[in-house]
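Thread: "does anyone have the structure for this chain?"

Original post by V.I.:
We have the sequence but no experimental structure in hand. Need at least a predicted one for the grant figures.
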Amino acid sequence: MIDIGFDVIGDLNLEPNDSFNWHDKATSLYCIMTGNISTDIRTVTQTLVHLSQHYQGVFFTPGTLEYETAKGDINKRTSQLVSIAQKVPNIVILHHNIVIVDGIAVLGSNCWETAHEPGTSISIDDLKYNQYRLDDMGFLHKTIDKLQRHLDVKKIVIVTNGVPNKNCYFGQVPEYVDNQTPLDTVLNADSESKVTHWIYGSYDKPCEATLILPRKDDIQAVTNPGQGPNFKPFNPKRITISV
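Reply from O.Q.:
Generated one for you, tokens below.
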């Protein structure tokens, strides 16, 4: 049995002129990022390049912040982010994608936290983003189901920008959440209890908690938001998985 470590980072919320220095902060060979680096793609690129110099692998799930300047063309922005990652060593975009590290499958999707507030009219954008959320959930469910039969995959880590369920807001649940399908319904596909961790973003406080689920083995939900350059000190949250 060996222990594999991952550093968790998310929600940096950087502006174009903000500085981000990760020198001497890495505690693992691999880094998991839950999105929301910046609305500025150049800043996103610079941050990923910087992190790639400190890790053997940086597994990044784009957040809603990365799409704010996409002018509604979500697919084009996703392709742009994938293209950036292909040019930078050690970077992998976890958009409907899987990375397998020593028997641990890391898979991710945005899962779109954005939604309209109760009492307001439903717009075309609301319907569009809700469909993106459902599509991402469909990918997670289908992939988790396939990985149950994958003999080389012993453990699964899910990475989303969206929050898994209401419990992960710790009493600060936004009003719009009642209108969303909970992300953790995808765990119905985890028949062999391979999922050990759910790494998520879109929450403003670092935390680690156990998802309350009707299953034998518990899942650790982990988030570690930076919340901009003035959120100091900011260090990675290390998770360790034994395989």
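V.I.: this helps a lot. The chain has one domain: 3-242.
O.Q.: and The chain has a mean pLDDT of 89.
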